[in-house]
Design brief:
heterodimer, A: alpha+beta, ATP Synthase, domain 1, 2 domains, five-stranded mixed sheet, five-stranded antiparallel sheet, 10 strands, B: alpha/beta, Pyruvate Kinase, Chain: A, domain 1, 6 helices
Chain lengths: 132, 291
């Protein structure tokens, strides 16, 4: 069994990471999950949260604001709406994301209200988690 | 024959024009590199998105519950054309070729009795289309304040386009832009956004059977709007690179033309100078003979 898999983190504007990893922690829409090599093929959407990449010795953390992740036996790719290294995710940046989410909640149609509210909550949780 | 002074001024003015076009060419070359880099950087995301959506769409396309973004509104009466051009001119046939393609399409649609609505991105395309199709224009997106096209810009346009679709303002959306191939070669392209079409060639026959969380329909509903933004973003980036490429080659030939003109003007200048000297000599000699 392979010890590592390829991990790609891409946002629409740039490729943030393309590394070998032993495990990756992903904030899935319906709960966190950890992908390891030889994981069954899996596709999930993301909620705002932290992606942790473990390459055996180091853990690198990235903040994502949504998107989706595709996991297969050979590798994991995270396609994030917006992604940044943890230290770049300042209160300011996340505040912007939060107000955008709140604006969407205000204007969203009745049937997507729950999803929008969920998103506002997720961003708030993430901010608390990071201590902002 | 123009007098010497006039020729001299003329040569100087063409020389300074050459300097300007040369500088513009260099600037375009530098900008082109940056534009190409950002287009390159955006490609993995767009590709991955396409593959995943292609797989999902294959399964969902025939189901009655398919999202409207994929299945369309069931009609084909009102077309929305998003024409993306540049904010600045002096880039050869770049804007005209995009507008020409859009114009052909509009004529075709109007002939078939469809309603056409136009959103323009970038001032130059708007100027060219305004005369003929001013009544069909519903919105203009001004990009002159935007230095580097970001995903947010694309998202803004996409949000508007999607809102209009939800409000049943149109049935089919197509974006017009120029695809960057090489510096010399940019191809104006029309890409249908809504209903979404997927390239069959992009499908991976060996793609594993995914587990989905949440279910397939929910993911598809989440991804389709995002795919619209991504496609618009790709279009804007390709356009950016194409614009700079087109400007670079246009300015290159302008510089060359100016050089040719300077050469021929200089020859003309020297000839006139010589003629003037000869004339003077003849006058002196014939004056001396007459004595």
């Amino acid at each position: 069994m392979a010890d590592t898999m390829t991990f790609d983190l891409v946002s629409p504007e740039r490729k943030l990471a393309s590394v070998e990893a032993t495990s990756v922690n992903i904030p899935g829409m319906e709960g966190d999950l950890t992908a390891m090599p030889n994981h069954a093929a899996f596709l999930t959407t993301l909620r705002p949260g932290v992606v942790k990449v473990n390459n055996g010795s180091d853990v690198t953390e990235y903040v994502v604001t949504g998107g989706f992740a595709e996991i297969s036996a050979e590798g994991t790719s995270v396609l994030a709406e917006q992604a940044m290294p943890l230290n770049e995710a300042t209160a300011e940046v996340l505040g912007g994301v939060l107000s955008a989410a709140e604006a969407t909640l205000e204007t969203s149609a009745e049937d997507s209200k729950t999803a929008a509210a969920q998103r506002v909550n997720d961003v708030k949780t993430l901010m608390e988690q990071l201590g902002h | 024959m123009a007098n010497l002074k006039d020729l001299k001024t003329r040569i100087d003015s063409v020389k300074s024009t050459r300097k300007i076009t040369k500088a513009m060419q260099m600037v375009a070359a530098a900008k082109l590199r940056r534009a190409q880099e950002s287009a390159e950087a955006a490609r993995p995301y767009a590709l991955q998105m396409d593959v995943v959506l292609g797989n999902l769409a294959k399964g969902a396309a025939n189901s009655p519950t398919a999202p409207r973004l994929l299945a369309g509104s069931g009609k084909d009466d009102v077309h929305l054309l998003i024409v993306a051009t540049s904010e600045r001119g002096l880039c050869g046939g770049f804007n005209s070729s995009i507008v020409k393609l859009a114009r052909l399409k509009i004529a075709e649609l109007l002939k078939a009795g469809k309603t056409v609505k136009i959103i323009t991105v970038g001032k130059k395309g708007r100027e060219q289309l305004k005369r003929e199709f001013g009544d069909n224009m519903i919105k203009h997106v001004d990009m002159s304040e935007v230095k580097n096209v970001g995903y947010v810009n694309a998202q803004e346009i996409a949000t508007d386009v999607l809102a209009r679709f939800d409000a049943a303002e149109y049935d089919v959306a197509t974006v017009f832009f120029s695809r960057f191939r090489t510096v010399m070669d940019q191809t104006p392209t029309a890409l249908q956004l809504i209903p979404a079409v997927f390239n069959d060639a992009a499908e991976d026959a060996t793609a594993p059977n995914y587990d989905y969380e949440p279910d397939e329909d929910a993911i598809l509903a989440d991804l389709l709007p995002r795919s619209v933004s991504t496609q618009i973003f790709t279009a804007l980036l390709e356009n950016g690179a194409s614009e700079q490429g087109a400007r670079m080659s246009a300015m290159d030939s302008a510089t060359r033309n100016a050089g040719d003109m300077i050469d021929s003007l200089t020859i003309q200048y020297n000839r006139s100078r010589q003629a003037a000297i000869t004339n003077e000599l003849i006058e002196i000699i014939s004056g001396a003979e007459a004595l």
